[in-house]
Amino acid sequence: EAEVAQSPRYKITEKSQAVAFWCDPISGHATLYWYRQILGQGPELLVQFQDESVVDDSQLPKDRFSAERLKGVDSTLKIQPAELGDSAMYLCASSWGTSRFQETQYFGPGTRLLVL
Amino acid sequence: KNEVEQSPQNLTAQEGEFITINCSYSVGISALHWLQQHPGGGIVSLFMLSSGKKKHGRLIATINIQEKHSSLHITASHPRDSAVYICAASGATNKLIFGTGTLLAVQP
């Protein structure tokens, strides 16, 4: 069964360093989502792509976070510089169609980030 | 006040019990999702519904659009059902707004 792949699974870094996360959605899925989940809370959308275009990045802290999906397939989320408050689980999800339709989202295993 | 609220936050049940988790939302939605998250982080979508009721195995999800309320029921609960259950609302762009989750522990 096709799955959403993410790497790394775990990342420990020191504050002020740069970190990057990678996501490969299920083949053929047009929409890709990055969520951040702080311990004990529900996930929060950071950025949503339809193909290579950003649909929603209203909650992305743009002074330190960036995301790209250059060829409309895999995606990278970067934090520079990392802060202590960035410690969280970063989840990637994908769905089949365009963002106009209500569809099931398929989640990857997540990247757990710890900033020291 | 969160746009999507769940209750209870924590739930402990004995194996075989009937379980209900409730979700209320204050936003206009296109669909309501129920998801399951196991320790370690992986999230699996259980249901997406915009009206009525859906059933899959021992899981049943219902929604009342007028009251902006949804419930997830688990019949004949089993220890392997232990997980965090999260409801989420989606709007026009399929963006999910999550509740904080219900931590369910089913004891043998």
Describe this structure in words.
The complex is a heterodimer of chains A (116) and B (108). Chain A is mostly beta strands. Helix content of chain A is 0%, strand content 47%. Chain A is built from no helices and 11 strands. In chain A, the strands form 2 sheets. In chain A, strands 2, 4, 5, 6, 9, 10 and 11 form a 7-stranded mixed sheet that branches. In chain A, strands 1-3-8-7 form a 4-stranded antiparallel sheet, with no helix packed on it. In chain A, strand 4 and strand 5 form a beta hairpin. Chain A starts with a strand and ends with a strand. The mean pLDDT of chain A is 93. With 108 residues, chain B is mostly beta strands. Chain B is built from no helices and 11 strands. In chain B, strands 2, 4, 5, 9, 10 and 11 form a 6-stranded mixed sheet that branches. A 5-stranded antiparallel sheet of chain B has the order 1-3-8-7-6, with no helix packed on it. Chain B is globular. The model of chain B has no long low-confidence stretch (mean pLDDT 92). Chains A and B meet through strand 4, strand 5, strand 9 and strand 10 of A and strand 4, strand 5, strand 9 and strand 10 of B.
